[in-house]
Design brief:
Structural class: mainly alpha
Shape: elongated
Number of helices: 7
Helix content: 55-70%
Number of strands: 2
Distance between the termini: 46 Å
Order of helices and strands: HHHHEHHHE
Oligomer: single chain
Strand order of the largest sheet: 1-2
Radius of gyration: 25 Å
Strand content: 5-15%
């Protein structure tokens, strides 16, 4: 009887393939549609309700109206102006919160990506390869939202970094990889 003693097979740790900037851009566009259409529909309904309940606001928004013939703003007009300001602030806040929760929850879930990323077969991980936490996904979202749009430099950086990281990825220590 012959004994065959061999060294156990040691598996090399595979490095994930990084997602290209084009994949990331398309995923971002898909996510914009996925989240933008429902928000636009909700905002349309809320705006319709607001303008139906406030004829003064509707008149103020009509360019062809002779509504501005007076130089004195009445109390009703002030109420309409304040209502419009609160409506727009509320709309911006609602859109920001819904978008933040969409990105942060989806990217920190076991799916590790938004619906757009999943459609393109990419996911977000820590630089070390682990799943990101909700806090890290939140930081990534707000870094993307507030820093990257400045001259789009945050996105342009991804073309020149070794791991194809945009500014928000560098800040959050994340990478986007193919599944």
């Amino acid at each position: 009887m012959e004994t065959n003693i061999t060294a156990p097979h040691i598996q090399e740790k595979k490095h994930p393939e990084l997602a290209g900037v084009g994949y990331r851009f398309l995923a971002h566009l898909l996510d914009g549609i996925i989240i933008g259409v429902p928000i636009a529909f909700i905002m349309f309904i809320l705006a319709s309700v607001f303008f139906v309940s406030s004829p003064e606001a509707a008149m103020m928004m009509d360019d062809d109206s002779d509504y501005y013939s007076s130089t004195v703003i009445t109390d009703e007009e002030w109420e309409a102006i304040i209502g419009l300001i609160f409506f727009y602030i509320g709309a911006i806040l609602m859109g920001t919160v819904v978008t933040w929760l969409y990105y942060a929850i989806m990217e920190s879930s076991k799916l590790q990506g938004t619906l757009g990323k999943m459609a393109l077969g990419i996911k977000v991980t820590k630089v070390t390869g682990e799943k990101v936490t909700f806090g890290r996904a939140t930081g990534r979202f707000f870094a993307k939202g507030f820093l990257s749009p400045i001259l789009y430099i945050g996105y342009i950086i991804a073309f020149f970094t070794e791991k194809k990281q945009a500014l928000h990825d560098l800040i959050a220590s994340t990478i986007v990889v193919k599944k």
